[in-house]
């Protein structure tokens, strides 16, 4: 695999995305897209067909590194996001992980009917991820910020309890109400493993990390406080003790009106906004100067044309002074035309985007 263009070592302030995560405003804003490495890219589809299943691709460090840098080569995004999966944590905690064709991930044994304490930890399952990080670090140009990630404890727990993705996460929510002491032990176990996992990614070479809480919107306010905010506080504080200079992005998808509390209480360095959040409201409601990331609707990107240009302009106008990283409100859709990504990047990277 050929290396990307590289120059002399640069300072953090010469990495636009990392500079924004540390509170500096850049205009135009740096940009990366969630799921930017994936099925909408023909080069990804070709490699996936060659390597076989998704988990095989994740565990092939050379291939996973190639997938990570593919969108950087094509589009020159300001950030590269590690190609992996949030379910590597339960896999390392002792659950078996596989993917059913057309149906998504499966985990066994389910924690709905199997005690967490009976799982046999297998931290060696994370070694291919760390090797991917080391390989990617050698490939990226110095101005590109390298992002690691993990799923947040609540979201990861929903898969561990149900053994798969589930509608409204009902089984896990019922368990949390019925047996909060046992469920707290699950959240604590995931939190501990996540701190070690993100720390391992940082030691291998990532510049910043993101916590994906994809299912946080399913929780009532008090449950959100206990199962989203509290464990995020624990993870952020412990990461900061180990790696005080590494920014943490929190992405509580669906949090809505609970976003300001999340921002105030968790201590994250930046907040990711999903596409349902009014960016003007977020600018007015979140702590002054806190960097935000987002929040273009993936369907606007899929549509392209004037609808895409209008959506981009509105987001940029909503953050007149706040540090802002342009991103999607969730992952890029697999049917998104390459030309629409080119259109979006051209619009974002011009001053006209704030007109």
Descriptive overview:
Helix content is 47%, strand content 12%. It has helices spanning 16-21, 42-51, 54-59, 61-75, 88-92, 127-139, 153-162, 170-178, 180-204, 221-242, 259-266, 279-285, 298-303, 305-318, 338-348, and strands at 79-81, 96-100, 104-108, 145-151, 208-213, 248-252, 270-272, 292-296, 324-328. The strands form two sheets. Strands 1-4-5-6-7-8-9 form a seven-stranded parallel β-sheet. Strands 2-3 form a two-stranded antiparallel ribbon. Helix 4 (61-75) packs parallel to helix 6 (127-139) and helix 10 (221-242) packs parallel to helix 11 (259-266). It is globular.
Mean pLDDT: 94
Strand order of the largest sheet: 1-4-5-6-7-8-9
Q: What distance lies between the first and last C-alpha atoms, to the nearest angstrom?
A: 41 Å
Detail the poorly predicted runs: 1-10
The level of helicity is 40-55%
């Amino acid at each position: 695999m050929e290396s990307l263009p590289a120059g002399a070592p640069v300072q953090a302030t010469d990495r636009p995305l990392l500079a924004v995560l540390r509170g500096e405003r850049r205009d135009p804003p740096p940009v990366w897209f969630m799921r930017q490495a994936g099925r909408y890219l023909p080069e990804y589809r070709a490699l996936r067909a060659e390597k076989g299943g998704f988990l095989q691709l994740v565990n092939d460090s050379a291939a996973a590194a190639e997938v990570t840098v593919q969108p950087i080569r094509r589009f020159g995004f300001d950030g590269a996001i590690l190609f992996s999966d949030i379910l590597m944590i339960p896999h390392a905690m002792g659950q078996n992980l596989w993917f059913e064709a057309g149906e998504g991930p499966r985990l066994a044994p389910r924690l709905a009917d199997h005690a967490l304490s009976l799982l046999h930890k297998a931290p060696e399952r994370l070694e291919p991820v760390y090797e991917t990080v080391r390989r990617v670090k050698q490939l990226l140009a110095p101005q590109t910020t390298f992002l690691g990630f993990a799923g947040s404890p609540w979201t990861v727990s929903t898969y561990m309890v149900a053994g798969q993705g589930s509608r409204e996460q009902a089984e896990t929510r019922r368990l949390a109400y019925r047996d909060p002491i046992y469920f707290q032990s699950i959240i604590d176990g995931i939190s501990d493993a996540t701190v070690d996992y993100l720390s391992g990614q940082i030691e291998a070479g990532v510049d910043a990390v993101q916590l994906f809480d994809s299912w946080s919107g399913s929780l009532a306010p008090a449950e959100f406080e206990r199962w989203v905010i509290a464990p995020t506080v624990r993870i952020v504080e412990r990461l900061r003790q180990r790696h005080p200079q590494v920014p943490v992005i929190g992405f509580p998808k669906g949090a809505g009106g609970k976003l300001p509390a999340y921002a105030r209480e968790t201590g994250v360095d930046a907040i990711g906004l999903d596409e349902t959040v009014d960016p003007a409201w977020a600018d007015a409601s979140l702590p002054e100067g806190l960097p935000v990331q987002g929040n273009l609707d993936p369907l606007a990107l899929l549509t392209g044309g004037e609808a895409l240009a209008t959506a981009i302009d509105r987001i940029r106008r909503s953050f007149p002074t706040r540090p802002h990283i342009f991103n999607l409100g969730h992952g890029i859709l697999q049917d998104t035309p390459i030309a629409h990504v080119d259109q979006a990047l051209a619009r974002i990277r011009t001053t006209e985007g704030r007109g």
